[in-house]
Automatic annotation (TrEMBL):
InterPro entries: 3-OHacyl-CoA_DH_NAD-bd, 3HC_DH_C, 6-PGluconate_DH-like_C_sf, 6PGD_dom2, ClpP/crotonase-like_dom_sf, Enoyl-CoA_hyd/isom_CS, Enoyl-CoA_hydra/iso, Enoyl-CoA_hydra_C. Residues 191-286, 305-385 form the 3-hydroxyacyl-CoA dehydrogenase C-terminal domain. It is an enzyme of class 4 (lyase). In the N-terminal section; belongs to the enoyl-CoA hydratase/isomerase family. Belongs to the enoyl-CoA hydratase/isomerase family. Residues 9-188 form the 3-hydroxyacyl-CoA dehydrogenase NAD binding domain. Pfam families: 3HCDH, 3HCDH_N, ECH_1. This is enoyl-CoA hydratase. PROSITE patterns: ENOYL_COA_HYDRATASE. GO terms for molecular function: enoyl-CoA hydratase activity; NAD+ binding; oxidoreductase activity, acting on the CH-OH group of donors, NAD or NADP as acceptor. Pathway: Lipid metabolism; fatty acid beta-oxidation. It comes from Halogranum amylolyticum. It comes from the Archaea.
Length: 659
């Protein structure tokens, strides 16, 4: 079945995941049958969809009409057979127990049409085993959404032993239709990708505390501020539920052996009913205490190495068993766990030889199975390679951008900031890629103008990646370096001889606004909101904002924008002189490209000299005027001037060549 043939989707289970998946499917335009075992459960799921759609509309992420239409597409069912009678795809999200899931499939198989694909939203159970209770194992695969489905971008699409390639292709395409990013898991391996890496890490964190090797504070400080993970390991355990983590570990232990033996510290928490946030107590106290408190200055290098070593071993196991390649693993870990670099890349950066040594030492010391080095990891380390090849190969791949995109449209080099699900916030990695990309575009003779935009329609950029910034801990020197790196990178746009246009759609905040400030012209959609909110965070605009903004809007307005830290609408920012033009929301892409194209058709030498003279004039007007005069003289000798005059005389458009 082709994805275009899918009209109706049945979601079995109206709990947290089920109603979330149903909402996503309804938002994508599908007719949705939502089914649970009784009226009360299914109605609760329906009500939650309604609540969530209203929230999206309140936040202007969808219109009121779209929210209403999506809800209209959802029908509730209690009878399992009836619910699948017209389904093209069934997504099952019933409790994570093999017996329950098998019963459900046995109950629906004969009622669903022959062409229907079954996709299970299990987070770790065997797809193959489940598929075998149906008469359609080829049309059966895993479709693992992350919680909450409406917000989380990742969907792991998992092949069972019998799954046909066509089924995988269709379900991946379906995930894309739902505006999600599918990552293919080629084999039905316990925990798939994200849980297979996250849960053993949580276990290792617990073992370190259990064995008095480190404290909860040290481990969480290291995970969050050393490795840049969005949460500390114990914070994450509390967030997802310690019982949930233990449940996955028990399954991994049962199927894969002693390397996954759950740490007693985790088991005790479950026995005591201290399951994390949901019970008010876990590793942190939520109800009667201060909640999560993670110090920024207790990062320990040895703890960091240990976590990375365990992670590298899991990655090696997945790659060696052909479950997924390093790129897919990293994509999944970035989208599903919020790891800044992914796991394979982080391991490569730490050095696989060091991590193997760490595992060997730990194994010698403790004899624990989980430190046994996977053969493939040892081979890579011995050959001096990383998951992404030898270190020199990695350098040659540096233009394979992950956080930005470069697209060429005629002579416009279009640079897209590409982290839409983090509001195109600017991580240190993105800053590095931006710097390389600006150099590439500046040096590319085919490119005559640069257009900067943000991917998606929610943000040009919401500023520096606050999590990435936090991962520097409280090290002031790292802060200074980060500020300088941003100033220099954005400064390359100012120094670039080619005209630069910023096309702003949505939020343009903090570092994002400082980036736009370095463009020559700014055009924004009506819905855009701009501002320098750094004072709200106790910071200052550190990527040139204290200097460059005033050049455009004047000191008084710059101070107003920075000191109030407010978000200003596009119309106001046009009035303040920051925006050159405000256009309708649907027109931004077209109009900003049109503007960039028209500048790309301009006289390159005259444009370059204009930028240089104006830039020098900021520092010293005399110098600026001198450059202006010299440039004016130089231009007299150019073919472009000749072409400009000829075109004027013959009443046609000039064709400048920059000669
Ligand atoms: C030198 C430079 C310094 C700086 O630039 S400092 C940073 C200045 N910027 C800010 O303070 C803006 C921070 N962001 C926000 O205030 C809000 O966001 C918005 C108003 C932009 C949007 O709010 P809403 O519509 O409610 O969306 P959401 O759930 O907050 O964001 C969606 C996802 O985007 C992530 N995100 C947004 N901004 C940043 C950021 N600046 N750094 C890192 N992540 C960011 C969120 O966390 C979340 O992610 P998840 O879906 O995983 O929860």
């Amino acid at each position: 079945m082709d994805v275009d043939d899918i009209n109706s989707i049945t979601v079995l289970g109206a709990g947290n995941m089920g109603h979330g998946i149903a909402e996503v499917a309804a938002l994508a335009g599908y007719t949705v049958n939502l089914r649970d075992i009784n009226e009360e459960f299914v109605q609760k799921g329906y009500d939650q969809i309604e609540w969530s759609l209203n929230k999206l509309a309140e936040k202007d992420r969808i219109s009121d009409d779209d929210a209403e239409a999506a809800l209209d597409r959802v029908t509730t069912f209690v009878d399992a057979g009836e619910s699948v009678a017209d389904a093209d795809v069934v997504i099952e999200a019933v409790p994570e127990k093999m017996d329950i899931k098998k019963e459900v499939y046995e109950a629906i198989d004969e009622h669903a049409p022959e062409h229907t694909i079954f996709a299970t939203n299990t987070s770790s159970l065997s797809i193959t085993e489940l598929s075998e209770v149906t008469d359609r194992p080829k049309q059966f695969c895993g479709m693992h959404f992350f919680n909450p489905p409406v917000r989380m971008q990742l969907v792991e699409v998992i092949s069972g032993e019998h799954t046909a390639d066509e089924t995988m292709d269709t379900i991946e395409a379906l995930a894309e239709q739902m505006d999600k990013t599918p990552v293919r898991v080629r084999k039905d391996s316990p925990g798939f990708i994200v849980n297979r890496i996250l849960v053993p890490l949580m276990n290792e964190a617990a073992w370190m505390v259990q064995n008095d090797y480190a404290t909860v504070a040290e481990v969480d400080s290291t995970a969050k501020y050393g490795l840049g993970h969005p949460m500390g390991s114990f914070e994450l355990a509390d967030q997802v539920g310690i019982d949930v983590g233990v449940h996955v570990l028990e399954y991994l232990h049962e199927v894969l052996g002693d390397a996954y033996r759950p740490c007693p510290l985790l088991e005790e928490k479950v026995e005591e009913g201290e399951l994390g946030k949901k019970t008010g107590t876990g590793f942190y106290e939520y109800e009667d205490g201060d909640g999560v408190q993670i110090p920024t200055d207790e990062v320990r290098e040895d703890v960091e190495r240990r976590l990375l070593a365990l992670m590298a071993n899991e990655v090696a196991g997945l790659v060696a068993n052909d479950v997924a390649d390093p790129e897919s693993i990293d994509k999944a870990m970035k989208l599903g766990a919020g790891y800044p670099d992914g796991s394979a890349k982080a391991a490569d950066e730490a050095g696989l030889d060091t991590l193997v040594e760490t595992l060997d030492d730990l194994h010698e010391e403790t004899g624990e199975e989980r430190y046994v080095v996977v053969d493939y990891l040892r081979e890579l380390a011995e050959e001096g390679e990383g998951f992404y090849g030898a270190s020199d190969e990695q350098e040659s791949e540096e233009h394979d951008f992950e956080t930005i995109r470069i697209e060429h449209e005629g002579s416009v080099g279009h640079l897209v900031i590409n982290r839409p699900h983090q509001m195109n916030s600017i991580s240190p990695e993105l800053l590095g890629e931006l710097s390389t990309a600006i150099d590439l575009l500046a040096d590319d003779d085919e490119v005559r103008a640069i257009l900067l935009t943000g991917a998606g329609d929610r943000a040009f950029s919401a500023g520096a990646d606050v999590m990435g910034m936090a991962s520097g801990g409280s090290d002031p020197l790292r802060g200074v370096e980060l500020s300088k790196k941003g100033q220099e990178t954005f400064g390359k746009l100012v120094a670039c001889d080619k005209p630069v246009v910023a096309g702003i759609d949505g939020y343009c905040l903090g570092g994002g606004m400082e980036l736009a400030t370095c463009a020559d012209l700014r055009i924004a959609s009506e819905r855009s909101k701009l501002g320098q909110p750094e004072h709200n965070l106790g910071l200052i605009p550190g990527w040139g904002g204290t200097q460059r903004l005033a050049r455009i809007v004047g000191e008084g307005r710059a101070k107003e924008i920075i000191f109030t830290a407010e978000r200003f609408d596009a119309e106001t920012m046009e009035r303040y002189g920051f925006l050159n033009q405000v256009v309708g929301n649907d027109e931004l892409h077209e109009k900003s490209m049109e503007l960039a194209q028209s500048l790309a058709g301009g006289p390159p030498i005259a444009q370059a000299f204009t930028k240089r003279a104006m830039r020098k004039g900021w520092e010293n007007q005399e110098a600026g005027l001198e450059i202006e005069a010299q440039a004016f003289g130089h231009l007299m000798t150019t073919d472009d001037l000749n072409e400009g005059i000829m075109a004027f005389a013959s009443d046609r458009d000039p064709e400048f060549e920059g000669k």
